[in-house]
Every structure is written in C-alpha cells, then in structure tokens.
Specification:
Rossmann fold; 2 domains; 5-stranded parallel sheet; 43% helix; 15% strand
Amino acid sequence: MDAVIRPYGTLDFLTQREISELSGPDEGPLKKLFHRCALAVLNTGEETDSSLEVMERFREFEIRVIQETRGIKLELKNAPQSAFVDGKLMYSIRDHLFSVLRDIVYIVKEQESRGLGAESQSPDITDFIYHILRNAGALKGLSELNMAVCWGGHSINREEYEYTKEVGHQLGLRGFNICTGCGPGAMKGPMKGAAIGHAKQRNTGGCYLGLTEPGIIASESPNPIVNSLVVMPDIEKTAGSIPPRRPRLHYFPGRSRNRGRIALCAGHPDPSRK
C-alpha cells in the first residue's frame, strides 16, 4: 500500500545533504540502513523472523524522505498491508518510523564525526550512548526510579510468555513503567501486562520504552505497544544504555548471552581488568 505521513509537530533535524543521501538515486549506506529498518517496522506483527525473506517478499517497497517548508514527510510505496487499518497507517508504526529515522541519521553522523571504531575507549563509548539517549529524549525515562527493565528473547513458549505478561501486569498495577528490547515474546509480554495494569489503575501516562539496534530489528520488529523507541548502534551499546544497578531488573528466557548482560547491568567489572 502507498501512503504519505508526517510526524507530530516539526521534525527539522535533517540537513539538505542528509535528505539527499536518504532519497537520492545512489544506494548509500545510510539509505540502505533506513530502508531495511523501515521495512522491518512496517512488517510488525508478522510471523517470520528472516530479514532476507521480508526483503524478498517486499522487494518493490520504497520509502522517500521529502523536505517541506516546515519539516519533512515520508512517502511510502508498496508497504506491507498489515501496517494499515482501513487504508491508514497505524499511529504506532508511524511514530516508530520517525524514531528510526531520527536515531539512524544521528548514529551514522556521530560515528563519522567522532571516529568511533572497535578500538574506541570506554569513556568515548559511554559519552556516545549518553548523546544518543539525550537526542531521543529517553534519558529522563531511563533515570526514573519507576522504570522496570525487563529483558529476554522472542523464542519462548506460551507458558513462559504468560509469565512475562503477569510480571508486567503486577509491575503496572504498582505504577512501574517498562523498558525492554521492544520485540515479541519476553519483550512484548511485560509491556502488554503493564498496559493492563496501568488501565486498571487509570494510569494514562504509561511509558513503554523499547531499545533495539539495526542488526536485530528485522527479526525482532518493535511491538506496537512501544511508545518510546530508541535505536542504538549495536547490542553492546543497547545493554550499556541501561543504568547500572537498576532497582527493577527482570531477566526472562529466550535470549543468548543473558549472563553477560546481567553482569554488565549489575555493574560487574570486566574480568580481564581484575
């Protein structure tokens, strides 16, 4: 399906050069990355977790960034029909598209200007993470004491999913907001449960913060409950964005390397530095 969408208010963070990179005929790295992540967001709710399958199925999909007098708009062509209701793009997906655009452009440009690479020092990386979160407006939410971090994977069975949902429900009843990896499974359950808990308490200001990165967004597309989406450069920086010694930190099954992430979020020192 085709659509033209605009963000709420104005979105003036793109320069003319960046718009040209995103919409020009050349398939540069920024354009390719945004195209892939945008298609993954639009494919939210589908069963497949193969990015290659999604790209092949929607090989005619196009997305263009168009500059206007007061901001920008996105033009979608041949987008997945599942993202639309009665011919209109779902509001949650529209918000996610502009969040992806905001973060990907910022990350690519910051990495270039800072010269960050595999050998970058820890203080430089920490500063980089801070600036990404600040640019996305997510610092306040992550620093609040009522933000519960729930981490896990999408490869869980129904019983495990219901458990994550009940944990989120109990947190929501107690006024906690939720931060997860924003995908399905153990990342969707806590948010869905918390949304029910918030509704029971007439809490209309619930925050459902989703952290993701380009390497996994295609297989773990943001679930529609997420109302604050942040795209980090990679999984290490995603884990690094969670404040150490978070008062409420819940780990669920379904994801590899959980032990390392638990140690990182708990502020455990690197064994090689002992």
